[in-house]
Amino acid sequence: MKKIINILGWVGVSLTIISLILTMLSTYHFVYIKYFYDYYTLQWCLFFTMIVWGIRIFYLKSSFRDLIYTAICFIMAFGSMFFRLMRVQ
């Protein structure tokens, strides 16, 4: 289970980085990519990545600081969804 969460975490990070690069290229009009023209794809990638990393850190909890890091990951994830649902572009 630990390996699956670890792999999902790094896959999420990779997808978020790719999504960030493509979103920046598209919003600054270097290239046009339909799904990356706004921040919605980036917000979804950030949401799933932060949820997986929060679960990963919570699963490995060895100190109180890890619980704080888990809370920060979940706050970032739900903050991203808040802006997504408020249709911030």
Q: Indicate the overall shape.
A: elongated
Mean pLDDT reading: 90
Calculate Rg over CA atoms: 15 Å
Class computed from helices, strands and strand pairing: mainly alpha
Number of helices: 3
Number of E strands: 0
How helix-rich are the residues, as a percent range? over 70%
Low-confidence stretches: none
Strand content: under 5%
Q: Strand-and-helix sequence, N→C?
A: HHH
Largest sheet data: none
Distance between the termini: 37 Å
List the SSEs and their pairings.
Blueprint (H helix, E strand, L loop, with lengths): L1 H26 L12 H20 L4 H22 L4
Helix pairs in contact: 1-2, 2-3
Q: In words, what does this structure look like?
A:
The chain is an all-alpha fold. The protein is built from 3 helices and no strands. Helix 1 packs antiparallel against helix 2 (40-59). The longest helix is centred in the first third of the chain and has 26 residues, at 2-27. The protein is elongated and about 45 Å long. It starts with a helix and ends with a helix.
Describe what is shown at a glance.
With 89 residues, this protein is mainly α.
Write out key terms for the chains shown.
single chain; 89 residues; mainly alpha; 3 helices
